[in-house]
Design goal:
Blueprint: E1 6-9, E2 25-27, H1 70-81, H2 85-92, H3 101-112, H4 121-128, H5 135-152, H6 160-175, H7 179-184, H8 195-208, H9 212-226, H10 238-251, H11 261-270, H12 278-286, H13 288-307, H14 310-313
Antiparallel strand pairs: 1-2
Helix pairs in contact: 1-3, 3-6, 8-9, 9-10, 10-12, 10-13, 11-12, 12-13
Length: 321
């Protein structure tokens, strides 16, 4: 299917994660044939090394958040932690996957390799580094980049075959009805044009399956649906909007700790290699004001989902021009 060109947004983690939010990412028809675009955000840091206001484990009062099943967490972490993704794929590709979750997660993980495969660690470093690192931070960043290059090296030389592999996995996940894959498909033609049907699918998924991956894909769908200017009517900047959705995913069970993609990208992009939480990674990108704005938005988004305030989430009337 034809992919809609999604505007560049401050989606924070997708040099290492085919879907998160610390790296700027173009989702175009050619997305897996060229590496995701990487750019610096405003580059501000908080004065005096101020620490972000970290979220304690107990959630704020309000609707009860879904909790990922232990089996789902185990699969997520298993794929995240494998040191040879190609070998892992070959080992599990023929195993039963009735829910489509393994296919979806593998497709996303393999796509993430697109900026690490067929490149040396030095090339990756030159391409991704925003702020040079020194001393211990430089050593940690080098180890992380080397580990990512090695993790993805099994896909070397595949060229367009790597894209076909991810598409095949996504088709399997969609055929199995995996909720995040169904949400992901909304970014493609003709779904974005038929907003009535696509909106119905997206909002139903938010009601019945508001897990982190569904939230992520609905966020991407809204970007594709509404274009690049629509946030002005909410008086909302792109950074706050994208980070607020990212923090909401943390509330719903996403991996937001020291091994999460945003935290690893803070090390790769900016040399901040001692960060242990997503909020701290956001602080390094946008400063305390952005952290506070994103934290406030995450609360608003949760309430809007709970009250089915779809207009407030971005399911707005759209011009056909």
């Amino acid at each position: 299917m034809k992919r809609i060109a999604i505007p560049v947004t401050a989606v924070a983690v997708l040099a290492i994660g085919g879907a998160w939010w610390l790296v700027l990412h173009h989702a175009t028809r050619d997305e897996a044939q060229s590496a995701p675009a990487v750019a610096a955000v405003d580059g501000k840091t908080s004065p005096g090394g101020a620490q972000p206001r970290l979220r304690p484990e107990p959630m704020r009062t309000g609707p009860v958040r879904p909790v990922l099943a232990p089996a789902s967490i185990a699969l997520r972490d298993e794929i995240r932690d494998t040191t040879d993704l190609r070998a892992y794929y070959e080992r599990v590709k023929d195993l039963p996957d009735p829910k489509g979750e393994r296919s979806y997660r593998l497709a996303e993980a393999i796509f993430e390799c697109s900026i690490f495969v067929d490149k040396t660690a030095e090339e990756v470093s030159r391409r991704l580094t925003i702020i040079p690192a020194k001393g211990d931070a430089l050593a940690k960043r080098s180890r992380l980049i080397n580990a990512m290059v090695e993790r993805c090296s099994g896909f070397s030389g595949m060229g367009a075959g790597m894209l076909e592999l991810t598409q095949q996995l996504h088709r399997r996940a969609e055929a199995a009805g995996y909720p995040a894959e169904i949400a992901r498909a909304l970014r493609f033609e003709p779904a974005v044009r038929d907003t009535g049907r696509a909106d119905g699918v997206a909002t139903q998924l938010l009601v019945t399956n508001p897990d982190p991956e569904v939230l992520l894909q609905v966020y991407h769908y809204l970007d594709a649906r509404n274009g690049s200017e629509w946030l002005r009517q909410f008086n909302m900047d792109v950074l706050t909007w994208s980070y607020g959705w990212g923090l909401l995913q943390c509330d719903y069970g996403a991996d937001c700790g020291p091994r999460s993609r945003p935290v690893m990208m803070a090390c790769i992009l900016r040399g901040e290699c001692d960060v242990s939480r997503v909020e701290a990674a956001i602080l390094m990108q946008g400063g305390q004001a952005v952290v506070n704005g994103a934290d406030n938005l995450r609360t608003q988004l949760a309430r809007r989902i709970a009250s089915q305030d779809w207009v407030g989430l971005g399911f707005i009337e759209r011009s056909n021009k």
